[in-house]
Amino acid sequence: MVILFIICCLFAGVQSLLNITVAGKQNGDITLQCRIPEPVPNGIIVRWYSAKDSWLTSGTRVYKHRNHMSVQKPAPNEWNLHIKNLAQSFADVYTCHTDTNVTVSIISLVIESEPKFEDGLTTGKYYTVTEGGYAVMKCVVSGKPEPIIEWFRGNESYPLKVYGSQLKIPGVQRYAADLYICKAKNKYGADKRSINMTVAFEPEVDVMSPVVYAKQGEAAVLSCVVQGSPLVDVYWTDNDDKRISTSWKYLINEVPAGNGIPVKFINLIFRPAIITIHNYGKYTCNAKSYESHVQKAVELKRPEDKPADGTFTYN
Ligand SMILES: *[C@@H]1O[C@H](CO)[C@@H](O)[C@H](O)[C@H]1NC(C)=O
Ligand SMILES: *[C@@H]1O[C@H](CO)[C@@H](O)[C@H](O)[C@H]1NC(C)=O
Ligand SMILES: *[C@@H]1O[C@H](CO)[C@@H](O)[C@H](O)[C@H]1NC(C)=O
Ligand SMILES: *[C@@H]1O[C@H](CO)[C@@H](O)[C@H](O)[C@H]1NC(C)=O
């Protein structure tokens, strides 16, 4: 009885209680310490207990999670609980007791992990919004400590100085169409996703000059600028409304503005020595989306038809 009392009071010294929170990396290993003050009483039994799973060990015997848990005794007064291949479910409060009901350690284990994208909640690789609308792109990430999410436009050299799981663009304009990147980072690693945002708008067509003068036999260039997204078809038609393709007579020269800018230049080039009297007339630049078809015409005229005062009339 006296001996028990001594053990009790030695142990009751608050100094010896380990009460901490420790972080373990998911899939990693961790050792939870249980060290009894020396000298170790003869025949003492030390047990680990967890809030979720109740008694886990007794001495060096393991009752639960045998594939993951073991008791390590680096010293005669230690009964450390080693847990390997940590899963999220091992987040718990672990306590180490003696059979004399003295609590030696109280350890809250939190499981930490690198950032991981929640694919179901994160915007996919392609995102389309109508011009003038409200674009919202999402990157939902789990991980501990909570990852910092940063947004970039184009590539990681261009930070937008926007942080968090959403990138919002109200009143989105066509020139905002681009690749947007979200990058999530914590002390265990970083990961990113790219979202190609398309801004949809109906096609618009413009010609460089509505009247082009060329002599018979001369080459001529009719230039057209088309904007639209999506652009289903862009082409030139002749006086008879027939589509013109590249041939010995014509060269169709199509140049996208590049960099995802939804602008395209399409030139109708009359090759040298093909313009005859029959080629003068109206040529039309056409652009089609799924819903609409817009066009603008260019008159090809003889230089003799130029207004005498030399002024051009636009439209
Ligand atoms: C252990 O620490 C926690 C948080 O710091 C505290 O709330 C709790 O009362 C402590 N337990 C004991 C037995 O000291
Ligand atoms: C330890 O505590 C439990 C309940 O908290 C009690 O049933 C048991 O008798 C105690 N054991 C000792 C040795 O004091
Ligand atoms: C980002 O884009 C710019 C221009 O498009 C390019 O010069 C640069 O090398 C790119 N940086 C990276 C990290 O890809
Ligand atoms: C985005 O998607 C469009 C349409 O599929 C494509 O034309 C464009 O090249 C893509 N942009 C980037 C930066 O990948």
In terms of topology, how is this protein built?
Layout: H1 2-11, E1 18-25, E2 30-32, E3 46-50, E4 54-55, E5 57-58, E6 61-62, E7 69-72, E8 80-83, E9 92-98, E10 103-117, E11 126-130, E12 135-138, E13 141-144, E14 148-153, E15 159-163, E16 166-169, E17 178-186, E18 189-207, E19 211-213, E20 220-229, E21 233-237, E22 250-256, E23 263-270, E24 281-288, E25 293-301
Residues 179, 196, 260 line the site of one 2-acetamido-2-deoxy-beta-D-glucopyranose.
Task: Please provide a brief summary of the model.
This protein is mainly beta.
Mind explaining what this structure looks like?
- The chain is mainly β and 315 residues long.
- The model is unreliable at 1-14 (pLDDT under 50).
- Strands 11, 14, 15, 17, 18, 20, 22 and 23 form an eight-stranded mixed beta sheet that branches. Strands 1, 3, 4, 9, 10 and 13 form a six-stranded mixed beta sheet that branches. A four-stranded mixed beta sheet has the order 19-25-24-21, with no helix packed on it.
- The longest helix is centred in the first third of the chain and has 10 residues, at 2-11.
- It is built from one helix and 25 strands.
- It is 3% helix and 50% strand.
- One 2-acetamido-2-deoxy-beta-D-glucopyranose (NAG) is lined by residues 19, 106.
CATH architecture of the largest domain: Sandwich
CATH H-level superfamily of the largest domain: Immunoglobulins
- Taken in chain order, the helices and strands follow as HEEEEEEEEEEEEEEEEEEEEEEEEE
Distinct compounds present: 2-acetamido-2-deoxy-beta-D-glucopyranose
**Domain module count:** 3
**CATH topology-level fold name of the largest domain:** Immunoglobulin-like
Major sheet attributes: 8 strands, mixed
**Given this structure, which CATH class of the largest domain is correct?**
Mainly Beta
> What's the gyration radius in Å?
38 Å
Low-confidence stretches: 1-14
In percent, how much strand structure appears in the residues?
A: over 45%
Instruction: Measure the end-to-end span.
Output: 112 Å
Mean pLDDT over the full residue set = 91
**Count of helix runs:** 1
In total, the number of strands is 25
